[in-house]
Each structure stands twice: as C-alpha cells, then as structure tokens.
Amino acid sequence: MTSAEGEYRLYRELAGWWPLISPPAEYTQEAAYLAAVLGSAAVPVRQVLDLGCGGGHVALHLKGTFALTLVDISPDMLAVSRQLNPECEHVQGDMRTLRLGRAFDAVLVHDAIDYVTTQEDLGAVIRTAFTHCRPGGIALFVPDYVKDTFGELTGSGGGGTDQAGRQASFRERTWDPDPADDWVQADYEFTLRGADGTVELIRETHRLGAFSRATWARLLTGAGFLSAPAATTATAATAATAATAAPPGGRSDPRSGPPLPGRRPDNMFAGHRPLDSRPEASGSDPGAPAVSRPSG
C-alpha cells in the first residue's frame, strides 16, 4: 500500500470489513501459482518480503511454504493481517522508500501496486524490491491492470459473513478517463450490514495505476533485474518469462510441459536479480537515477 491508499476509507476505518469485502478463500488458487513461480529463482526461496500486504490474505496461503515479512503503510490493514497471520513479522512502511537493511530470497508485490500511479513511483517500488532481493532471487509484481489490455469493466464481489453476523459486498465500475496517462478510475459502492441489521452504503472513488508492458520492462531492467529469468526449472522459467503476456487460467505455456498449480494472475511481471550482482550496503539504493519521486 502506498501513501495514496491512506486517503481511502477502505484502508482506514473500514479495514475491519476487509475480510468480508475480499474473503481470504478467494486468494487460494492464485497464491498457489505465485508460490510455484517464486520457486523459479536461481537460489532456494525461503525468506520472502511481501510489500503492500494489505490484510494479509495472500500471505495466509503462502506462510506455510515461506517465512514472510509483511509490509504495509496502513496500520489498520496491518492490524487485520496480524490477526490472520500472527506468526509473521509485520512492518509499517512505504514500499517506495522502505529500507530494512537486509536481503530476502524473493520479493512479492501483489495488487497494492495498483495504487502506484506515476512512473517515478513505480520505479521507486521496483528499486525497493531490487534492494531487498538477494543475488539470484526473484521479485514478482501482480498489478490488476496494464495499459495494453485495459478495457472498462463492471463487477461485484464480497459477500463474506463473520461470526458476529456482519456481511459486506461491493459493486464496481473501472474505467479510463484519459487513455494518455497511466491510471484508471475505480468507482466502488460498498454495502456493509452490521450485526444488528443496520446497513451502510459507502461510495468511494480510487485512482489505480495501469502502465504499459514496455514501461514495466524498462523500469525492471533499469533497476538491475534481468529481463529473462534465471530459473532452476524449465516449467517455472517459462512461466516467469511469459508472465507479461500469457493468458490467465492456471497454465504457464503450452510448450513448457505440465501446468503450474493454481490459477495464474491476469497480469504478472517477474524480475530476476543476477547471481553475480553486487550485494547492497545496508540502506543503499542500487542503480537509482536521480529523480524526485506513491495497497489489500
């Protein structure tokens, strides 16, 4: 989550509704796929940094395989994640500027990357991932939208119910006010039904990033990541290589052999840090151009 998300009620006073708006079970299949691709690194992957962990719903399904450090800018969302994932380390921080002074085998940035809406900020997040990724490690970025394939959409979701009897659902319309820029607009309507039966209707508009694949490729290589994966298996390597273009549906590439488990995200970008790259000094920012420069 970036500072822009801090402006939205969904990630502040409504954070306690997050498990009902976006139930953890909905992440099971995608998390299985992400775990398989994380395993494509040139080094064994155990320690994983999750930037923009939100309520910890992806982490819930990964913590049995990896040792996770969960980072989010929202203290309210971190509180939700701590309840769900008490055994994981939690850190409040901005994924553009975070510097923990230690390296991880892999870095995951799930859909909190949506709240990065400028190329400068996207480059900063990618540099954070590179800084914390050990040589031979992998970084995965999972945005909901890319400019190349974006089309207006409407939908609904949620429907979760907790033990107290609360229920929550939402409707959304996501559209592009100006195709010349790098963001789209999501208009949400949340219906929150309290345990006492009272209903609150909340409308909120979010600005979400939608960058081109060319922009992603340029910023990943500019930060120092390899544009082609350094993977340990052919299937995982092909999945990571094809991550920017292959269709969703739980299959990597027809030429790569058996499909990976779970369901592939609609969009995924993988960066592999070279094995021979120089380890960073604590708090350093590798290869960062001098720029001024923002998750569920």
- How many helices does DSSP assign? 7
The CATH class assignment of the largest domain is: Alpha Beta
Q: What structural class results from the helix and strand content?
A: alpha/beta
- The CATH architecture of the largest domain can be given as 3-Layer(aba) Sandwich
CATH topology of the largest domain: Rossmann fold
Instruction: Give me the count of strands.
Output: 10
Helix content: 10-25%
What number of domains?
2
Radius of gyration: 18 Å
What is the CA–CA distance across the termini? Answer: 7 Å
Would you identify the regions where 5 or more consecutive residues have pLDDT less than 50? 228-255, 281-296
How would you spell out the order of helices and strands?
Answer: HHEHEHEEHEEEEEHHE
Question: Would you summarize the structure shown here?
Answer:
This protein is an alpha/beta fold. The chain contains 7 helices and 10 strands. The chain is 22% helix and 25% strand.
Question: What report would you give on this structure?
Answer:
This protein has helices spanning 18-21, 28-38, 57-62, 75-84, 119-132, 213-223, 234-241, and strands at residues 47-51, 67-72, 89-92, 104-109, 133-141, 153-161, 167-175, 183-193, 199-209, 269-272. It is of the alpha/beta class. It contains seven helices and ten strands. It is globular and about 60 Å long. The strands form two sheets. A six-stranded mixed sheet has the order 3-2-1-4-5-10, sandwiched between helices. A four-stranded antiparallel sheet has the order 6-7-8-9. Helix content is 22%, strand content 25%. The chain folds into two domains: 3-146 and 210-272, Vaccinia Virus protein VP39 (Rossmann fold), CATH 3.40.50.150; 148-209, N-terminal domain of TfIIb (Single Sheet). The N and C termini lie close together (7 Å). Helix 5 (119-132) packs across helix 6 (213-223).
